Amino acid sequence: MPGPLAGYTTLRTGGPAQRIVAAGDADELVQAVRAATEPVLILAGGSNVVIGDAGFPGTVVLVRSRGIRVIAEDATSVTVRVDAGEPWDDLVAATVANGWAGVECLSGIPGSTGATPIQNVGAYGQEVAETITGVEVYDRVQGTRQTIPAADCGFTYRGSIFKYVDRWVVLSVDFRLTRSPLSTPVRYAELARTLGVEVGEQVPLADARTVVLRLRAGKGMVLDANDPDTRSVGSFFTNPVLDRTTYEQLLERSADLGDPPAWPGADGLVKVSAAWLIDKAGFAKGHPGEGGVAISSKHTLALTNRSGTAHTSDLLALARTIRDQVHARFGVTLHPEPVLINCTL
Ligand SMILES: Cc1cc2nc3c(=O)[nH]c(=O)nc-3n(C[C@H](O)[C@H](O)[C@H](O)COP(=O)(O)OP(=O)(O)OC[C@H]3O[C@@H](n4cnc5c(N)ncnc54)[C@H](O)[C@@H]3O)c2cc1C
Predict the structure, then answer these.
(1) How many beta carbons lie within 10 A of that of residue 297, not counting itself?
(2) In a 3-state reduction of DSSP, which class is residue 175?
(3) What ligand 1 atom has the least distance to the C-alpha of 339?
(4) Is this structure's pTM higher than 0.85?
(5) Residues β-bridged to residue 79
(6) Distance between CA atoms of 151 and 30, rounded to whole angstroms?
(7) Which of 75, 131, 181, 267 has its CA 20 to 30 A from that of 243?
(8) pLDDT tens figures, 106-130
(9) Which residue among 86, 127, 136, 337 is the active-site one?
(10) 107 assigned to active site
(11) Which atom of ligand 1 is nearest to the CA of 232?
(12) Residue 257 to residues 10, 239, 330: CA-CA distances in angstroms?
């Protein structure tokens, strides 16, 4: 029996698996999934999963394939094909060093490249949906390999056709990047302010990367073995996207607190800051739960295994308390961002 899965996750929680196998390239990944005893869990960086204390009653396949290849280029752009197990931030560092713009604001996000399409990873005004051109997958239902064009990936805010379904194994991802010494126009106000530019301006790629890494570290959002605030899955809840009626009800219920930070979207929908809702519902940074868990001392949205010895049940108990209190106060339901494996909120 292999040891607990806690050692394979950034939260450092989760019980044992029946079997753990590592796949070093795409062919091995397909073989491992075909040969595995069901159920199967694909696990890469373990930075977006919450695994139950009972562990996983099947085979865990670790994605350990590496490689970045240029598959097409012209005067203005470069398309790279990246193996699923390539650490995401190594790819970002390489793009910045090569003068390829498009993912520089996604510096410092933990985990693998193959997991980025799963929840359309995003931060500081960029998301991978803007640069992905296709995702090579193994289809476990049909038993075939195919490339799904970006337009068919169903990318949404922290979502895609791949999230919460077992059908697809991501083997590699293609990104089309722009040859440019400058970043894409900076969209995120805090980033622009820190860079000393206006929203919409461009900055040298390396400056964008350096400042994003600094901002993230200040929020405990870059993995650091010496910082217990980073023993997390990053943001535990997504920012709720509300229809107009629910948003107006929220404004009424929060009238005494001022308007929550909000970003209008398509179809009259409004995305609202989950961190604000949590804070105003009475949970400050550092708020402790039972059993060694706590809200990060740097970021209200991150729930941490503060002691390093907490259980998943402790973390979920804190998450439930927060969700229920936010709902009672504001009538808004928060949803978890990570994938919950063999446990529920
Ligand atoms: C400190 C911290 C900060 C973070 N900041 C951000 C952020 O700013 N923005 C953001 O979007 N996310 C953020 N995250 C979440 C996380 O880093 C990303 O979602 C990342 O892409 C997960 O990659 P992973 O390899 O660790 O995936 P894992 O946790 O290993 O897996 C996540 C899910 O994807 C599936 N999966 C993984 N690889 C494959 C594959 N090859 N094929 C099929 N399924 C697969 C798994 O089965 C699971 O369901 C943060 C996490 C932490 C800990």
Answers:
(1) 17
(2) strand
(3) 49
(4) yes
(5) 72, 176
(6) 24
(7) 131
(8) 999 999 999 999 999 999 999 999 9
(9) 337
(10) no
(11) 53
(12) 35, 18, 11
